[in-house]
Amino acid sequence: MVSFSVLDLATIVQGGTAADAFRHSVDLAQHVERWGFTRYWLAEHHNMPGIASAATAIVIAHVAGATRTIRVGAGGIMLPNHAPLVVAEQFGTLESLFPGRIDLGLGRAPGTDHTTARALRRTLNSNPDAFPQDVLELMSYFQASPHEGEPGAVRAVPGAGLKIPIYILGSSLFGAQVAAALGLPYAFASHFAAPMLLPAIETYRRNFRPSADHPEPYLILGVNVVAADTDDEARLVATSGRQAFASLRQGKPIALPPPDPSFEREVVPFGTIPLEEVQSVSMVGAPATVREGIEHFAERTRADELMIVSHVYDHNARLRSYEIVAGMMR
Predict the structure, then answer these.
(1) CA 123 from chain center: how many Å?
(2) Phi (first) and psi of residue 106, to 5 degrees
C-alpha cells in the first residue's frame, strides 16, 4: 500500500508575508500529523518571491518543534550550495533536538537561477557533477569515527554516530543512478519534471545495489494534488499554481496569486495525456476524481510513497485538499 507525505515550500501568497507562510506551514503540519501522513518535507529554494523555505534547516526545526510524531525533513537540501560538513552539523543538531524524526533529502541542483547560485557560492567552482562524492563525504560525517581523537580528524559535532536517513532527489537519470549505486531511497520530482519519470524509475530499480539499511529500492514520487468538494471548485483553486508556474517558465517568479478563471483551460484532467508525455503529474478534482488519478498513477509506477504538493492560495482550501487525500488513506 502506498503511503502519503507532504512537500511544502512555505508558500508566500500575494498580499501575504513569510511570517504568514511559516504560520500556515505549522498549521498544515499539525493537521497532516493527525491525519496520518508519513513525513513533512520542506525544500531549499532561493530568490523566489513565493517560497519562504530558503533557510531550510531553520524551518524544519520550527515545524518539528510544533509537532510530535510526524517525520520532518528536507526535500531537499541542494548540496552544491553547502559544504557537506555544515549540512552534517545542521542535521546532526536537528536529530539531537528531535530524535528519530529527521530526514535528509539531497539534490544537486542549485534551487535557483545562475546569478543567485553565484551569490550563494561566491564562485561556481563547486561542481554539481561531484555530487556523488559530496554525498559520500556527508554520509561519512554521520559515522561513528574509528579514529576519534586522532590529530587532524574532522568530526561533525553533533552528527557523528547519529542515524539520519538520507534520500537522493532527482529530476533526471543522474539522481536515479546515484541513489541506485549507493543503495539509498530515491525521490523523483514528477510534480514538475514528469518527462523523465518512467526512465528514471526503470534506471533506479534495475541498477539498485542493496545496502545495509536498504535491502530493497524505495521510491517516492512527487504529485501535485488540488482536491475540493467538486471538480469545478478544484479546477478554479488549481489556477493559482498554474499562474505561478507560467510566470516561472517566463523567468519571472512571483508570489502565489489568487485563483483566476481564465487559467482553467490549462487544467487538464490526469489520464487524458499519456504519462510518457505529461510535463507534470497533477490530479485536480473532487474526491472521486483525485482518487481515480492517484490509484492509476500508483498502479502504473508501483511507487512506495507519494509526496503530495498543493499550490493553493487560500490556506483553508489547502487544508481541505490534504484532508481529502487523508480520507483516501483511510
Answers:
(1) 26
(2) -125, 135
Structurally, the chain folds into a number of domains equal to 1
Distance CA 22, CA 317 (A): 17
CATH number for position 94: 3.20.20.30
Q: Is-contact 244 257, C-beta < 8 A?
A: yes
H or E stretch at 176: helix 173-182
Cell of 21: 507562510
Residues 6 or more apart from 49 whose CB is under 8 A from it?
Answer: 12, 253, 254, 255
* pLDDT at residue 150 tops 80: no
75, 41 in Cβ contact below 8 A? yes
For 293-329, write each residue's pLDDT tens digit. 999 999 999 999 999 999 999 999 999 999 999 999 8
Considering only CA atoms, which of 251, 190, 255, 209 is closest in space to residue 49? 255
Contact at 8 Å (CB) between 208 and 183? yes
Cβ atoms of 139 and 112 closer than 8 Å? no
Q: Which domain holds residue 66?
A: 3-329
Q: Which residues pair with 220 in a beta bridge?
A: 187, 305
